[in-house]
C-alpha cells in the first residue's frame, strides 16, 4: 500500500499540464486512492526516477502538496505522506463540514443540466468501481465527486479548500477506519444528487451532513491508533500466557 512503485502514471488529464502538474496529480491521486499510506517516505530520487523528471520538479510538486497539508516536509529528513493525529482528524472533519455544507448549498443554486450530467457520470463510475472490487478507484472517485460538487458551486476559494480537506480525509480514513467496513458512499451520493437535481437545498444540505457523519462514524478516533510494533500488539497475550 505504501510502495512508491505503485505510482504508475495514469492517463494525463490535459495535454497542457506542465511536468509539475503531472507529478502533483499522480501523487495526489495515489493519496486519494490510499495507495500511499500515511507516513510513507517520499524520496525525491525515487520519484524522479519513476516520473523521469528532475528532483527540482519533484520538490516543487511536494511543496505544493505540503501547502494542502497532505505531505509533510521535514527539515533535513525529506517529505512523507502526512499522518494526522486524532485531534487533527477531528479538526479536519469539523472544517470539512463547514466547507461541504456551503458547497452543497451553492451547488443547488448553480446546477445546470450539463454539470449535473457530469456528477451523474461520476456516481455511476464510482458504483462500477466498487462493484468490481476496485476499492482504491472507488475511494478516489468518491473524493472526485465531492471536488466536482465544488466546481458546480462555482466558488474557487471553496474549491481550493475542498481539495485539501478531501485528500486529508482520505489519509484519515486510511489511518483510522475500523475494519474497512463496506463502503456505501455511492448510495448516499446518488440520493444527494437527486436532491440537488430537484433543487431541494434543505434536503441536500441535510443529506451532506448525514453523509459526513457516516464517514466519521467508521473511524476509531476515541481510542489509541493501531501499532506497527509486534511487541506492542501482542504484549497482552504474552503477559497472559506467562501467568
UniProtKB/TrEMBL annotation:
<keyword id="KW-0238">DNA-binding</keyword>
<feature type="domain" description="HTH gntR-type">
    <location>
        <begin position="17"/>
        <end position="84"/>
    </location>
</feature>
<dbReference type="InterPro" id="IPR008920">
    <property type="entry name" value="TF_FadR/GntR_C"/>
</dbReference>
<keyword id="KW-0804">Transcription</keyword>
<dbReference type="InterPro" id="IPR000524">
    <property type="entry name" value="Tscrpt_reg_HTH_GntR"/>
</dbReference>
<dbReference type="InterPro" id="IPR036388">
    <property type="entry name" value="WH-like_DNA-bd_sf"/>
</dbReference>
<dbReference type="InterPro" id="IPR036390">
    <property type="entry name" value="WH_DNA-bd_sf"/>
</dbReference>
<keyword id="KW-0805">Transcription regulation</keyword>
<dbReference type="Pfam" id="PF00392">
    <property type="entry name" value="GntR"/>
</dbReference>
<dbReference type="GO" id="GO:0003677">
    <property type="term" value="F:DNA binding"/>
</dbReference>
<dbReference type="InterPro" id="IPR011711">
    <property type="entry name" value="GntR_C"/>
</dbReference>
<dbReference type="Pfam" id="PF07729">
    <property type="entry name" value="FCD"/>
</dbReference>
<protein>
    <submittedName>
        <fullName>GntR family transcriptional regulator</fullName>
    </submittedName>
</protein>
<dbReference type="GO" id="GO:0003700">
    <property type="term" value="F:DNA-binding transcription factor activity"/>
</dbReference>
Amino acid at each position: 500500500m505504501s510502495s512508491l512503485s505503485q505510482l504508475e502514471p495514469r492517463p494525463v488529464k490535459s495535454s497542457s499540464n506542465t511536468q509539475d502538474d503531472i507529478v502533483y496529480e499522480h501523487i495526489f491521486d495515489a493519496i486519494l486512492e490510499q495507495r500511499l499510506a500515511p507516513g510513507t517516505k517520499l524520496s525525491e530520487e525515487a520519484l524522479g526516477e519513476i516520473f523521469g523528471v528532475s528532483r527540482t520538479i519533484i520538490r516543487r510538486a511536494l511543496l505544493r502538496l505540503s501547502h494542502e497539508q497532505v505531505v509533510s516536509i521535514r527539515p533535513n529528513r525529506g517529505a512523507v505522506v502526512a499522518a494526522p493525529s486524532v485531534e487533527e482528524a477531528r479538526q479536519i472533519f469539523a472544517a470539512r463540514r463547514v466547507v461541504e455544507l456551503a458547497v452543497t448549498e451553492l451547488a443547488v443554486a448553480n446546477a445546470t443540466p450539463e454539470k449535473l450530467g457530469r456528477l451523474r457520470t461520476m456516481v455511476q463510475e464510482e458504483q462500477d468501481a466498487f462493484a468490481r472490487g476496485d476499492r482504491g478507484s472507488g475511494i478516489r472517485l468518491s473524493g472526485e465527486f465531492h471536488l466536482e460538487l465544488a466546481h458546480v458551486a462555482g466558488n474557487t476559494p471553496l474549491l481550493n479548500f475542498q481539495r485539501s480537506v478531501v485528500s486529508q480525509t482520505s489519509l484519515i480514513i486510511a489511518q483510522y477506519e475500523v475494519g474497512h467496513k463496506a463502503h456505501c458512499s455511492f448510495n448516499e451520493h446518488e440520493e444527494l444528487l437527486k436532491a440537488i437535481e430537484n433543487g431541494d437545498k434543505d434536503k441536500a444540505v441535510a443529506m451532506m451532513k448525514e453523509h459526513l457523519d457516516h464517514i466519521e462514524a467508521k473511524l476509531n478516533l476515541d481510542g489509541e491508533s493501531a501499532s506497527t510494533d509486534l511487541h506492542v500488539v501482542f504484549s497482552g497475550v504474552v503477559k497472559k500466557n506467562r501467568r
